[in-house]
Amino acid sequence: MEALLLGVGLLLGAYVLVYYNLVKAPPCRGLASLRGRTAVVTGANSGIGKMTALELARRGARVVLACRSRERGEAAAFDLRQESGNNEVIFMALDLASLASVRAFATAFLSSEPRLDILIHNAGISSCGRTREPFNLLLRVNHIGPFLLTHLLLPRLKTGTSRVVVVSSAAHRRGRLDFTRLDHPVVGWRQELRAYANSKLANVLFARELATQLEGTGVTCYAAHPGPVNSELFLRHVPGWLRPLLRPLAWLVLRAPRGGAQTPLYCALQEGIEPLSGRYFANCHVEEVPPAARDDRAAHRLWEASRKLAGLGPGEDAESDEDSQPEDPGTPSSPSSPHPEEPTVSEFYPSPQSSTDRSTVTRRIPVKAELEPQAC
Predict the structure, then answer these.
(1) DSSP class of residue 91?
(2) Among the options 196, 222, 266, 280, which is catalytic?
(3) How confident is residue 189, by pLDDT bands cut at 50, 70 and 90?
(4) Helix (H, G, I), strand (E, B) or coil at 63
(5) What angle do CA 126, 131, 137 make, to 5 degrees?
(6) How confident is residue 278, by pLDDT bands cut at 50, 70 and 90?
(7) How far apart (Å, rounded) are the C-alpha atoms in residues 34 and 15?
(8) Which residues lie closer than 8 Å to 369 by C-beta, 6 or more apart?
């Protein structure tokens, strides 16, 4: 009996250590009031996105829930209005898998909303499920859609001091971008795992390059890792027979969605982190990333490839998008709208001879160690 009690005590002690060091998320203690400010949160009908939107609404922001399902989005908006006491929570339709839907959302937002202070790219997928598309669906939803949406909403973001937060993942450390196959279809769970990691690496590089492109505009950008979260994304593609076995385990070792929302909220609200624009955050503090995720040359190459995959023309800028919406390529394989030309390179990253001339790109400000903010 004593041995049994000792074993139980050791297990409980080990769990407490794991919980407080790996599972429990530090709370965000950012800006107290967001009255008069507007935020957009994609995928905000459930999980991390819904908890993020709730905290923004509680602080008085006007919050736009950008969701694919009208039924679930409007139900979430109703819930958040009731729980926060803030009636400025609305739903707008957005399907990141469809470039036409992204453009329609941007057009509607620009025509109805005079400002945008916080843009949080939370929506994402971890698997293609039963869907089989002639393009990389994981990259489309997790990166290309957010890339295009950010570009189209820049006219509002640039009107004041604003922030863009891209929810990434520690999976980016396993990513490796092959620009010769960037938009190739994904088939099978092994390819899905690789494509997911690659899309998360794209998120980190996107935030890095966006910070460079927008330096001096008042817009700052951050990649945020929510941590291991017990959300719908975790169980969405797990076989039905396995879910009852995984749910108790997930409850024990994964964060609740509210905990997962803390780092994205920190990046959106914390004062004093502007010099860290373009960096990657986890557990409410800046974290170093592997060389592939801080490669400025690869980040710029991804930017140019993303412009093509998003259907942006060579001379198309954000300001022109507000007044005229060019034709969306839609589904890349459709006869009426051919697949955007892919970047053609013979190596994973460009050689010095073939790399893009970056003399016209704003130089990144070096970040000193003493600028790192304290964890919240």
Answers:
(1) E
(2) 196
(3) confident
(4) strand
(5) 55
(6) very high
(7) 37
(8) none
What is the torsional sign of CA 40, 45, 49, 52?
A: positive
At a CB cut-off of 8 Å and minimum separation 6, what does 110 contact?
152, 153, 155, 156, 322
Q: How are the residues of the chain apportioned to helix, strand and coil, as percentages rounded to the nearest 5? A: 45, 10, 45
> In what helix (H) or strand (E) does residue 64 lie, and over which residues does it extend?
strand 62-67
Average pLDDT over residues 245-269: 78
Answer yes or no: is pLDDT of 11 > 60: no
Task: Give the model confidence (pLDDT) of 325-344 as tens digits.
Answer: 433 444 433 333 333 333 33
Q: Max Cα separation, the chain?
A: 76
Q: Tell me the C-alpha distance between 135 and 113, whole Å.
A: 32
Residue entry with tokens 């390819």: 191
Q: Against a cut of 0.85, is the pTM above it?
A: no
196 flagged as catalytic:
yes
Where would I find the H helices in the chain?
Answer: 2-18, 47-58, 70-84, 99-112, 137-139, 145-157, 189-213, 232-235, 243-253, 257-260, 262-269, 296-309, 318-323
336 phi and psi, to 5 degrees?
-80, -15
Contact 151, 75 (CB under 8 A): no
Cβ contacts of 210-213, under 8 Å, gap ≥ 24: 210/150, 210/164, 210/278, 211/277, 211/278, 211/364, 212/278, 212/296, 212/299, 212/300, 212/361, 212/362, 212/363, 212/364, 213/303, 213/361, 213/362
